[in-house]
């Protein structure tokens, strides 16, 4: 791997072992980027094989690229394993006019469906109560909450996309979620980093990465069937969900737009929404509960705030958040600390651009190290410590930070950020309103290190008890 930076084009050549455990991988991603940035500055190039990737390290460089030059850095870098199956459709991995059109449609449709408004909040509140009822069935016995915490956010996003609410034992949706979860794990593996860097190896390199295509094809088939069902019962005067808004748009599209508004593009877009809205949320919730058990003084303070602001008998609502600074700070700190997507999805520049005295050619991949922002000691003292105080001022009021970028920033920022923030607040406060968390081991023995740390930082599996309060 050749590194090129401010000191000239010669750079230095390193041999790095790309296969290994999550902590070796984390070291390569984070500590090495930090060390390289100290030598080469906040902008430098890594050559993995023959592929140049510009690395942006630190808040200033990332902000300048994604916000100040957002349009020029709005391309999506190549993910060969996924592109081979999705063919460039969907929201997350598409490019050019296709991406602009589907992103614009998605944002507008989510707003029409009530994103950030009361009717979406009602859906999340209802699901939070179902979640509590499922947790009550454990009767305070040790349990692994992964399955239940997968179902709740999945039901929310499925109700938005195709108006379905699933029972927590529904075999079809459980299989779908298994495919989503498996793909995220595979994409976070060191082996996947090799395949994305050296795509010529994909067909010859043995391993679980071959399951990605099978899983995506299964999910596409399932969603295309849902789309056909919606088409048969479509009422163009009363669209109820994302699929129906899309099918109406498809009917209205002109000749040029029709190629973008295909059923395959719709299926891939729903896959992106469900993938981001389910696995990302469930992993964050699991990580949050693990951290709350590791630091029991934190949930104790949150529960005091719940008692004071909400009480025990009414459901939490989003209006409560402004009166609960410690709870708000705790949720922000969970997202900052776990650093769920450490290196963000790859960007690409859409044209030749002069950036910080470098000429970056059109199409060059750009990696933005969100770790360097979320774990930057300049903004967050002791960044490796879990401390809600990072988001509180000296008077205990919630303190916003421009460095809080778990959803990325700019043109490619997460389209579901508003829903994610709502779910985190309502799910966590509802759980802590109804239960005390009891660990099976002493807090000092709880290991919060991720089991995988590539595409996403995935929490370890664990068991604990939900004790009704």
Shape: globular
Radius of gyration: 22 Å
N/C terminus separation: 55 Å
Query: Main β-sheet: number of strands, strand sense, barrel status?
Result: 7 strands, mixed
Adjacency order of strands in the biggest sheet: 2-1-3-4-9-6-5
> Element order, helices and strands?
EEHEEHEHHHHHHHHHHHHEEEEHHEEEE
Counting DSSP H or I runs of 4 or more residues, the number of helices is 16
Molecular structure report:
This protein is an alpha+beta fold. It is 49% helix and 11% strand. The chain has 16 helices and 13 strands. A 7-stranded mixed sheet has the order 2-1-3-4-9-6-5. Helix 5 runs parallel beside helix 16. The longest helix is centred in the middle third of the chain and has 32 residues, at 263-294. The chain starts with a strand and ends with a strand.
The gist of it:
By secondary structure, this protein is an alpha+beta fold. It contains 16 helices and 13 strands. α12 runs parallel beside α16.
Keyword list:
single chain; 469 residues; seven-stranded mixed beta sheet; 16 helices
SSE layout and pairing:
Blueprint: E1 2-5, E2 8-13, H1 22-40, E3 43-48, E4 51-57, H2 59-68, E5 75-76, H3 80-86, H4 96-112, H5 118-136, H6 146-162, H7 171-187, H8 190-197, H9 211-232, H10 242-252, H11 255-258, H12 263-294, H13 297-309, H14 325-338, E6 347-348, E7 353-355, E8 358-360, E9 365-369, H15 371-374, H16 417-434, E10 435-439, E11 452-453, E12 457-458, E13 464-468
Parallel strand pairs: 4-9
Antiparallel strand pairs: 1-2, 1-3, 3-4, 5-6, 6-9, 7-8, 10-13, 11-12
Binding site for heme: 414
Protein name: unspecific monooxygenase
Membrane topology: Peripheral membrane protein
